[in-house]
Write a structure and sequence with these properties.
Bound molecules: S-adenosylmethionine
Oligomer: single chain
Distance between the termini: 62 Å
Number of helices: 10
Structural class: alpha/beta
Strand content: 15-25%
Number of strands: 10
Length: 279
């Protein structure tokens, strides 16, 4: 079957885009039709299906729920890199870490709990871990944990492996490479276990009604994913983030993702950084 020959009718496109919106919040606009067609046609080929209608029916069957992950992978972007949007890591270094050190000196040491809510292939949560390790300066009794989550099991696996080719390491300094990476196979670099021990990875769909946290969080990074959601989905999500943060906790969004037009209870700190008011 020639991939270009498969037709995606308007009603098939509407069905598939509604399903994607319902299951993962991603809004696919009409002008993306040919892109979606190209990407999903590859899935039809893998599954031996001839029409998008058959694909839609296939994916609706509970027994084929794994295909949903494949579909989301095919239509969404996982682009990320180490220390993307550096200003956020500077903010951690200049405000959040000093505050933690101060609390530690006052005898209020506690584990800093960070959720990296669309962690893709791991560059973002590992950048967070390196930032904490660099700036805690060996403070005794201080600790942190980072949960990296994503809807895509494919990128989560890459994050767990923590193995990166040379071209992915652009944002990492030479000294960070020496401290936090070791040589992997085929010239790749592997995140050391001494860094990995601070991270846990888990599949979480941001559309889920409940998130699996019993204790409140200090920091949530949710960057460069809300841009694909409509305003009402963003509003529901931001409210859930607010519920899961400690008073005084921080929410970081992508630099092009403000909360303009979204009703929320956060205080604005600086572009794309928000704080839950201390009670
Ligand atoms: C563009 S990447 C952003 C990665 C990283 N946060 C950054 O800023 O570099 C977007 C990620 O969001 C994930 N994603 C999309 N929809 C999601 C959902 N409903 N729940 C959780 N993750 C989702 C994708 O799988 C992808 O890995």
């Amino acid at each position: 079957m020639d991939l270009l020959e498969v037709e995606l009718t308007d009603s098939e496109f509407r069905n598939l885009s509604s399903l994607i919106h319902e299951r993962c919040g991603i809004n696919i606009q009409e002008h993306k039709k040919s892109l979606i067609k190209g990407r999903l046609a590859k899935r039809l080929k893998v599954l031996g299906l001839k029409k998008f209608k058959e694909y839609y029916e296939y994916i609706l069957k509970p027994a084929n729920s794994e295909e949903l992950v494949q579909m989301i992978d095919a239509v969404s972007t996982n682009v990320t890199h180490f220390f993307r949007e550096q200003a956020h890591f500077d903010f951690l270094r200049d405000y959040i870490i000093p505050d933690m050190i101060k609390r530690s000196k006052e005898g209020q040491a506690g584990k800093l709990r960070v959720w990296c809510a669309a962690s893709s292939s791991g560059e973002e949560p590992y950048s967070l871990a390196m930032t904490f390790l660099e700036h805690f300066n060996g403070i005794q009794g201080e600790d942190f944990m980072i949960l990296g989550s994503d809807i895509s099991t494919r990128v989560l696996k890459a994050a767990q492996d923590g193995v990166y080719t040379e071209d992915k390491l652009g944002g990492v300094s030479k000294s960070q490479r020496l401290k936090y990476f070791e040589n992997g196979s085929q010239g790749q670099s592997k995140v050391k276990d001494s860094v990995k021990k601070y991270l846990v990875f888990k599949r979480i769909n941001l559309m889920d009604n409940e998130f699996p946290f019993r204790n409140p969080l200090d920091v949530i990074f949710c960057r460069n994913v809300m841009i694909y959601f409509d305003k009402s989905t963003q509003q529901t999500l931001v409210q859930k983030f607010h519920n899961h943060l400690k008073p005084g906790g921080y929410l970081f969004l992508g630099h092009s993702e403000g909360l303009t037009g979204v009703k929320h209870k956060f205080s604005y700190v600086q572009p794309s950084v928000y704080r839950k008011d201390a009670s």
